[in-house]
Design brief:
Blueprint: H1 7-24, E1 27-32, H2 38-47, E2 52-55, H3 59-73, E3 89-94, H4 98-107, E4 110-112, E5 124-126, E6 129-130, H5 138-143, E7 148-151, E8 154-157, E9 161-164, H6 172-180, E10 186-188, E11 191-197, E12 200-202, H7 211-231, H8 240-257, H9 263-273, H10 275-299
Antiparallel strand pairs: 1-3, 1-11, 2-3, 4-10, 5-9, 6-8, 7-8, 11-12
Length: about 325
């Protein structure tokens, strides 16, 4: 018969397990576990079994183990985890793709009834329609100011009603009504709060960024650097093309206004002396642009009318 461990022995075993996980894994998801049952947590563990480990525990114990392990190993980056352990939270240690792990966690949500005293995470709206309740149950609807009518011996809700607003606590009347209507408005599961990766901590929204989003952010940053460099006249790689173009424009303006010239300026001066040359140079480009338009108009021409009987050699008087 296996002997049961004492509380002290359980704490020592938990500390050893947590320290081992901190050494083996460099990616950790901090998750909130409010209203998550043990059966639901077991399903989540099963879904992540191939590449991740879910560890729950008391915050004080986890903080103490992390602090002592960081001092013992000299890995001060682990201390960034301590401020994240607030409330009913746990840790998911993983070697897989963080985005895939986060998506897998979000799949395991269970519908739950609106119990009395719970804070509503979303707005709860009762839809219109037949409730299946007999007319003696109208008192629930009257207390909550829900317009109803009697239809074929049952209570029917006329219009949709916002029963509970997000952030409000569920009252006894609201809970009883939703229970009678068999409505489970809430869904609970592990919610990723923060991501720890190689000592860095960031928001889980970062996992939703695509390569296009990153490229757009990078181009926006380059544009801001170029604007700043141009405004303070400080040369940078981002501002270099604009500096060269602006310098060329200044030299060209000087050449046009004076007798000084160079090969690129000579062509511009010719256009200024004889604008017809510019029109002749622009004509091929205009023709190239007009060709597709003309082709489209040609296709839209109406088909010729059908030949008349006279053209076929027929006549009413033959």
């Amino acid at each position: 018969m296996a002997t049961r461990l004492s509380k002290a022995e359980k704490k020592i075993a938990y500390d050893a397990r947590l320290c081992k996980l901190l050494e083996e894994y460099s990616q950790i998801l901090i998750v909130a576990a409010d209203n998550v049952g043990s059966n639901q947590l077991q399903h989540i563990r099963a879904g992540l079994r191939d590449h991740s480990i879910v560890l729950m525990g008391k915050n004080t114990m986890m903080k103490r183990s992390i602090r002592l392990h960081a001092e013992r190993t000299g890995n001060r980056d682990l201390l960034n985890l301590i401020p994240l352990l607030q409330g009913n939270v746990g840790m998911i240690f993983t070697k897989g793709d963080l985005k895939e792990v986060s998506d897998e966690v979000s799949k395991h949500k269970v519908a739950a009834p609106a119990r009395v005293g719970l804070v509503a995470p979303i707005d709860v709206v009762v839809p219109p329609g037949n409730t299946g309740l007999d007319p003696s149950q109208t008192s629930f609807f009257q207390v909550l100011n829900i317009p109803t009518k009697i239809n074929k011996g049952t209570v029917e809700i006329i219009t949709p009603v916002e029963l509970i607003k997000k952030g409000d606590r569920v009252g006894s009347s609201e809970s009883a009504l939703l229970s009678k209507l068999a409505i489970k408005p809430f869904s609970y599961g592990l919610i990723v709060l923060s991501v720890y990766e190689n000592g860095s901590v960031y928001s889980p929204e970062v996992l939703d960024l695509t390569e296009d989003d990153i490229a757009a952010k990078f181009l926006e940053a380059v544009l801001r650097i170029a604007c700043l460099a141009l405004s303070i006249r400080y040369p940078t790689i981002a501002a270099a093309p604009h500096l060269f173009i602006n310098g060329y424009k200044n030299v060209l303006s000087f050449a046009v206004a004076t007798e000084y010239s160079f090969s690129q300026a000579d062509k511009v001066k010719e256009y200024l002396k004889d604008p017809s040359k510019f029109a002749a140079a622009a004509a091929p480009a205009a023709a190239a642009r007009a060709a597709p338009v003309a082709a489209a108009k040609e296709e839209k021409k109406e088909e010729p009318a059908e030949e008349s009987d006279d053209d076929m050699g027929l006549s009413l008087f033959d």
